[in-house]
Write a structure and sequence with these properties.
Length: 75
């Protein structure tokens, strides 16, 4: 995983399996290169980006671009 900090610094990181996801925040414990926990709150990203981060944290992958419900609504 690549982490980009607010100051623009990027580094490759290995995440721990323990994670916490709620409506308001996501915690991502980093194991390498340094042990730290990244805290991302809802107001740090736009709404869609935060939703995608929550899904990725819970599922380990992102959903397909088009949801089944959206496809059904158009039919």
């Amino acid at each position: 995983m690549c982490v980009e900090l607010k100051n623009g610094r990027r580094f490759g990181a290995e995440l721990d399996r323990r994670r916490h996801v709620s409506r308001w925040m996501v915690t991502l414990p980093v194991r390498r290169p340094v042990r730290r926990t990244l805290l991302v709150t809802r107001d740090m990203l736009d709404g869609e980006e935060f939703r995608r981060l929550r899904l990725w944290t819970l599922w380990g992958r992102l959903p397909r671009r088009e949801s089944v419900a959206a496809a059904q609504l158009r039919a």
